[in-house]
Amino acid sequence: MFQGNSTSVTIFFFVGFSRYPKVEIIIFVLCLLMHLLTLLGNMILISITILDSHLHTPMYFFLSNLSFLDIWYTSPALTPMLANFVSGRNTISFSGCAAQMYVSLAMGSTECVLLSLTAYDRYVAICNPLRYPIIMNKRVCVQIAAGCCVTGCLTALMETVSVLQLSLCGNSIINHFACEILAVLKLVCVDTSKVQLIMLVISILLLPMSMLLIGISYALILSKILRINSADGRSKAFSTCVAHLTVVVLFYGTALSMYLKPSAVDSQEIDKFMTLAYVALTPMLNPIIYSLRNKHVKAAVKKLLIRNLLVLS
C-alpha cells in the first residue's frame, strides 16, 4: 500500500475530464461508442479466424492475438471510466488501481512486442515463401505468442511494483481518468529517479528496439517487392503489408509521444487525450483497418453473416 508520513491511501479519486464540463458528455458518448465498436470489431475478427478454416494461418493467428490484446488493453481503463461517469463517483480502490495499471501495461507491452514479430512473419512470408510453412509452423507461432505475453507481463510487473512501493504522503487525487502509470507517479512525494530509469530502459527496449525490428523487416520486404516482375504480385504484397504498417504507425506513434517525450513537455491535460488515442481510438481502428484492407477477412465476414442469416431463416 502507498504510505507516507504515517498516512495510507486506500482510495483514489479521478479528476477525469471534469475541468471541461461542456465537452465532458461528448467525450463520454464518443468513448462509449469507441469502446463498443472495439469490443464488437475485435470479437468478430477473433470469431472469423477461429470459424473459417481458410484463415488458420500464422498471419491470422497473430491477428486474432492482437484483437484479443486490444480488448483487454482498452477495457481496464474505459469500462471503469464509463461506469464512474454514470455513477458520478470517480473513485477506485487501491487494489483496483494496481490491477488496472498492471493489466493495461501488460497488454500494451505484449502488443508492442507482438507487432514487431508480426512484421517478421510478413518478412518470412514474402521473402521466403517456400520455407514459410516450415519456419512459421504452429509450434513456433504459439511460442512467439507465449514469449510476447511473458515479456509483457514481466515488464508490466516490474514497472507496477516499482511505482506501488513508493510513498504518496496522503495524496490520492489522480489528475486522469484512469490509473495511468505516469499520472500515478505524479502523486509520489519521494525521489522517483530510480523508477523513471526503470521505465526509460523498458520503454527503450519495447519501443525503439521493436521499431528497429519492424524497420529492418520492411526494408527487406520492400527490396523483395521491388524485384517482383508481376504487377499483381507487387500489389498483393503491398496490400498485405499496408494494414500492418498502418496499425504500427498508430500504436507506436501514440506510445512514443507518451512515454519517450522530453521531460520539459509536461501537460497532464495533453496526456489525457493522448491516452484516449491509444486506449480507445487505436484498438477501435485496428479491426476496421485489417478488414478493409484484407479481402480474405471480408470474404470470411460475408460467409459468416450469410450462414447466420440462413440459420435464422
Structural overview:
A hairpin with a 2-residue loop joins strand 1 and strand 2 (7-8). Helix 5 runs antiparallel to helix 7 (193-206). Strands 4-3-5 form a 3-stranded mixed sheet. It has a two-stranded antiparallel sheet with strand order 1-2. The protein has helices at 21-51, 58-87, 94-127, 132-135, 138-164, 181-185, 193-206, 208-226, 231-259, 268-292, 295-312, and strands spanning 3-4, 7-8, 11-14, 91-93, 173-174. Mean pLDDT is 83; it is low at 1-7. It is globular and about 65 Å long. The N and C termini lie far apart (57 Å). Helix content is 75%, strand content 4%. The chain is built from 11 helices and 5 strands, in the order E-E-E-H-H-E-H-H-H-E-H-H-H-H-H-H. The chain has 313 residues and is mainly α.
Write the layout of secondary structure elements.
Layout: E1 3-4, E2 7-8, E3 11-14, H1 21-51, H2 58-87, E4 91-93, H3 94-127, H4 132-135, H5 138-164, E5 173-174, H6 181-185, H7 193-206, H8 208-226, H9 231-259, H10 268-292, H11 295-312
Parallel strand pairs: 3-5
Antiparallel strand pairs: 1-2, 3-4
List the uncertain runs: 1-7
Task: Identify the overall geometry.
Answer: globular
How much of the residues is beta strand, in percent? under 5%
Overall mean confidence score, pLDDT? 83
Major sheet: order of its strands? 4-3-5
Number of helices, counting only DSSP H or I runs of 4 residues or more: 11
In whole angstroms, how far apart are the ends?
Answer: 57 Å
Would you count the extended β strands for me?
Answer: 5
- Rg over C-alpha atoms, rounded to the nearest angstrom: 21 Å
Helix content: over 70%
Content-based structural category: mainly alpha
Topology as H/E string? EEEHHEHHHEHHHHHH
For the report, how would you describe the main beta sheet? 3 strands, mixed
